[in-house]
Specification:
Pectate Lyase C-like, nine-stranded parallel β-sheet, Pectate lyase, calcium
C-alpha cells in the first residue's frame, strides 16, 4: 500500500466523519470507516498504487488520492465491500468505463467525475446484483453510452446525494426489467441532486421504493420521472422546470410483471413539489399511496421556496 503523504492526513478523523453523514435508505453505509487509509499515487488503470488495486483488496479501506487527473479505464473497475473512494481534496475524473458494484456492501463514493464512458452496457456506476448499503455523494456524471447509475437485480439501501447529472439520455435506472420481480426489495433515496438537460430517467423505476427530495430537475426531453410495474415513488419538495422539448414531468409506463397477468404502472405521490416553466404532472396521474419513509424527521428537507440550482448540490 502506498504511503500517506496528503496535506490533510493529520485530519484523518475528520476525513472519516463523512461516513456518518448519509441520509435516506443508504444512511447505514460505512464504507472503509474501520479500515486502513490507502493512498492512490498513480492515474494508471492498474498496478501498484492504482485505484483498481485499492478497490480489489478484500479488507476495508478508506481510499484517498495523492494526485489529481484523469483515470482512463480499459474495463469495468470492480469495487469490493467496505470501501470508501474519497476524491475530496483532489480532482479525479473517471473515463472510458465505469465502476461495478457487484454483490458487495458498504461502499461510499464521493467527489468523483464520470465522463465519456463508451461501449455496450457501459454505465458510470453499476450497482448489481445483490449489493446493499451504498452511498454516492457529490459526484458529477455525464455522457456515457448507456446509463449513468443503474441500481438493479436485488440491490438495495442506496442513497444518491448532491450529484450533478447532465446532458445524457438514460440517466438513472432503478429495477432491471419487468421479469426481475426480486427488485421489489430495492429502496433508493435521491436528494439534493441537479438534473440538467438530461433526456429521461430522472429516474425510471420498476418495482422499487424511491424517495426523491430537494432535487432540481430541468430541461428534460421525454419525461423526468418514470413509474413502471408496481414502483412506489415519493416526490417531496423538488423543483421541476420544463424546457421547450417536453413539459410533462411524470410518466406512467405500464409493464407486465413476471408474476402478474396484466400490465401495471407505478405510483407517484407528489408533496410540496414546485413546477416551473409550464410543467404538467401527467395526463394519466395515478392515485394511490406509497411507502413510509423511515427516519424522515431525522434529516432536514427544504421547502422549495428555499431552493435554487446551487443549493441543491451543497
Amino acid at each position: 500500500m502506498a504511503p500517506v503523504s496528503l496535506p490533510y492526513a493529520h485530519c484523518e478523523s475528520k476525513l472519516r466523519a463523512l461516513a456518518g453523514q448519509a441520509e435516506g435508505f443508504g444512511r447505514l453505509a460505512t464504507g472503509g470507516l474501520h479500515g486502513a487509509l490507502y493512498c492512490v499515487t498513480t492515474l494508471a488503470d492498474d498496478g501498484p498504487g492504482s485505484l483498481r488495486e485499492a478497490c480489489s483488496k478484500k479488507e476495508p479501506l478508506w481510499i484517498v488520492f495523492e494526485i489529481s487527473g484523469e483515470i482512463k479505464l480499459k474495463s469495468f473497475l470492480p469495487v469490493s465491500s467496505y470501501k470508501t473512494i474519497d476524491g475530496r481534496g483532489q480532482w479525479i475524473r473517471i473515463t472510458g468505463m465505469g465502476l461495478r458494484l457487484a454483490q458487495c456492501e458498504h461502499v461510499i463514493i464521493c467527489n468523483l467525475e464520470f465522463q465519456e464512458g463508451r461501449g455496450h452496457d457501459v454505465d458510470a456506476i453499476q450497482i448489481k446484483p445483490n449489493s446493499k448499503h451504498i452511498w454516492i455523494d457529490r459526484c458529477s456524471l455525464k455522457d456515457y453510452s448507456d446509463g449513468l447509475v443503474d441500481v438493479t437485480r436485488g440491490s438495495t439501501d442506496v442513497t444518491i446525494s448532491r450529484c450533478k447529472f447532465g446532458y445524457h439520455d438514460k440517466t438513472i435506472l432503478i429495477g432491471a426489467n419487468a421479469a426481475h420481480c426480486d427488485d421489489r426489495n430495492i429502496r433508493v433515496t435521491i436528494h439534493h441532486c441537479l438534473f440538467d438537460g438530461s433526456r429521461q430517467r430522472l429516474p425510471r423505476v420498476r418495482f422499487a421504493k424511491v424517495h426523491l427530495y430537494n432535487n432540481y430537475t430541468r430541461y428534460w426531453a421525454i419525461y423526468a420521472v418514470g413509474a413502471s410495474v408496481d414502483s412506489e415513488i415519493y416526490s417531496q419538495c423538488n423543483i421541476y422546470e420544463a424546457g421547450r422539448d417536453c413539459n410533462v414531468a411524470f410518466k406512467y409506463i405500464p409493464e407486465k410483471a413476471g408474476d402478474k397477468n396484466a400490465p401495471t404502472a407505478g405510483t407517484i405521490v407528489s408533496e410540496g413539489d414546485l413546477f416551473l416553466g409550464g410543467t404538467q404532472l401527467s395526463s394519466g396521474l395515478q392515485d394511490g399511496n406509497v411507502f413510509h419513509v423511515p427516519g424522515i424527521g431525522s434529516f432536514p428537507i427544504l421547502k422549495t421556496r428555499s431552493m435554487d440550482r446551487d443549493t441543491c448540490c451543497r
